[in-house]
Amino acid sequence: MIYAVLVYALAVPVVTTWLAGDQTNPQAKLLESEGVPLDYVIRPLGLSAGQQTTAGVVAALLAAAALTVVIRAIVRRQADVLWWMVLLRPPAPG
Questions:
Q1: What residues make up the domain containing 83?
Q2: CA distance to 12, 21, 24, per residue, from 28 (Å)
């Protein structure tokens, strides 16, 4: 079950990034096209649209499967209900 939680924790950020898409504003894209280097905290991966879609769909399927495993374990009382706090906890501010 711990592996399901780990898969879920790793897959959800990928799905979120895929669904949110590129959030770079048009002015920054214009500057980048003119050769001005953009300042990123974390530089985005250079994936094609097809690769992004593939990664997003695979991550969504993995997250759904992992969540199913956790739900089944909780319903069958093989895992404590407190695992929901791990899976649904909002991110820490900061």
A1: 1-22+46-94
A2: 27, 15, 7
pLDDT at 51: 94
**Segment 21-48 mean pLDDT:** 83
**In this structure, is residue 41 part of a structural domain?**
no
Count how many Cα atoms sit within 13 Å of the Cα of residue 14 in the half-sphere of its side chain: 21
Statement: residue 40 has pLDDT above 70: yes
Output the pLDDT for position 93.
62
What tokens does 44 get?
């985005």
pTM of the model: 0.72
Per the structure, the count of domains in the chain is: 1
Consecutive H or E run containing 15: helix 2-20
64 half-sphere exposure, CB direction, 13 A CA radius: 7
Domain membership flag for residue 64:
yes
